[in-house]
Design brief:
By secondary structure, this protein is an all-alpha fold. The chain contains 18 helices and no strands. It is globular, with a radius of gyration of 21 Å.
Length: about 400
């Protein structure tokens, strides 16, 4: 990091994330609007599930190869191109909707295209961050970034609910074009360091380069184990969040208002957790934060499954605690990658880890839908909590992961 960039890194980070905040918010609004549009047009849960799957496919299948391209192409240009691609996709949807020819196939194709753009943009932004932000500030900045993402997730359904009935669908799509333009502009005006130019390499080598990324991950003691444990955590924990509304209404006998309270508690907890981590900066040993967050989330899930039907208030409180803990897992998790992995292979490593953890999400969703109906929703919460606690045991039980953030201090 050169002297000028080192002195102005806060300004650079703030400008980039101001644009990302606008882009994240509009993308989340559009995502809600698209889901409601599909629900209104088809009334099919199967179509909704298939549409949701398109959001996982690019990263889950092509993540390692995308990571290889991120390591060989200028990252600033990749982020601009990805945002531009997403903007053009939304603009194309707007044109189709304006002409009244918007079908489910077009929507699903657009969701797939947007997911491809995100699969390039997200790991690229994460790979660029440690080239801008000092290593000892990565967790703090990650906390603020997590807060912005959480605020977008909290605010977007409410904004979409207000706009969807009064604006035509094509006009909603144009919001995403505006948000992407903000992201492009802020990245374009910032000075972002690039990797040292290397020898031109044929594209056919992306497969071998993806394998090199896996080898790089294996060379850092404990990092591959952490990635596998993180994938198991995603498999066990993430699908449970989709069952909060069902738990609120079916088990506790509540209404949509009760479900909304729980969703607000979870999202509000994530905002508070991210903001706390941003202000505090976290501990020096990030593995302690990851382990503690995993323990808290495992215990809260088990406790939720043990509640009686009259325990809705405690359920909402536990949901708040779970949401608060989430940033203390994901933010230091990413900071460890950014600190431990050399910049020239970080894209490939993030691509592999992103693919593994993304693939776990749809598998977990499929399992939750299948087993929750057969064994009961409360038992599924207990089982998910048990699996999450097993991840905690592995994190503290394996010396390689327990000391992953200690080795640099020797």
């Amino acid at each position: 990091m050169n002297k000028d960039l080192k002195e102005n890194w806060k300004k650079t980070f703030a400008i980039i994330w101001a644009g990302q905040a606008a882009s994240l918010l509009t993308s989340a609004i559009i995502q809600s609007a698209i889901v409601w549009h599909i629900a209104a047009e088809t009334g099919s849960a199967t179509v909704l599930s298939v549409a949701a799957m398109f959001g996982y496919i690019p990263m889950a299948v092509f993540g390692p190869f995308i990571g290889s391209l991120i390591d060989r192409w200028p990252r600033k240009r990749i982020m601009i191109a990805a945002d531009l691609f997403i903007a053009l996709t939304s603009a194309f949807l707007a044109v189709l909707a304006f002409d009244g020819e918007l079908g489910i196939f077009a929507i699903c194709s657009a969701l797939l295209a947007r997911a491809i753009g995100t699969a390039f943009h997200s790991p690229c932004l994460q790979a660029v961050t440690p080239m801008i932000v000092p290593k000892d500030q990565l967790a703090r900045c990650g906390g603020y970034s997590y807060t912005l993402q959480s605020v977008a997730l909290v605010a977007s359904p409410a904004i979409a609910a207000a706009l969807y009935p009064i604006l035509p669908f094509w006009m909603l799509m144009l919001l995403d074009v505006v948000g992407a333009a903000c992201g492009i502009l802020t990245i374009a005006v910032c000075r972002i360091p690039e990797l040292e130019p290397s020898e031109p390499r044929p594209l056919r080598l992306v497969f071998s380069e993806a394998y090199e990324g896996l080898q790089s991950m294996r060379q850092i003691k404990g990092l591959l184990a952490l990635t596998v444990i993180g994938s198991l955590f995603s498999l066990a924990y993430i699908p449970v969040a989709s069952l909060y509304p069902l738990m609120s209404m079916s088990y506790f006998g509540g209404t949509t208002t009760h479900a909304g309270i729980v969703e607000a508690a979870f999202s509000g907890g994530m905002v508070l957790g991210g903001l706390t981590l941003g202000i505090w900066g976290g501990t020096k040993n990030k593995m302690k934060e990851i382990s503690a967050a995993t323990l808290v989330m495992g215990l809260t899930l088990v406790a939720m499954g043990l509640l009686r039907p009259s325990g809705f208030v405690l359920f909402a409180i536990l949901t708040l605690a779970t949401g608060f803990s989430a940033p203390f897992f994901s933010t230091p998790f990413m900071a460890i990658y950014q600190q431990k992995v050399p910049a020239e292979v970080l894209g490939r490593v993030l691509g592999i880890s992103g693919a593994m953890m993304t693939l776990a999400c749809p598998l977990g969703l499929a399992m939750s839908g299948l087993f929750a109906e057969r064994i009961g929703i409360t038992n599924w919460f207990i089982l998910s909590g048990g699996l999450t606690l097993a991840c905690f045991v592995m994190l503290v039980g394996f010396r390689s992961t327990r000391r992953l953030d200690v080795e640099d201090k020797k």
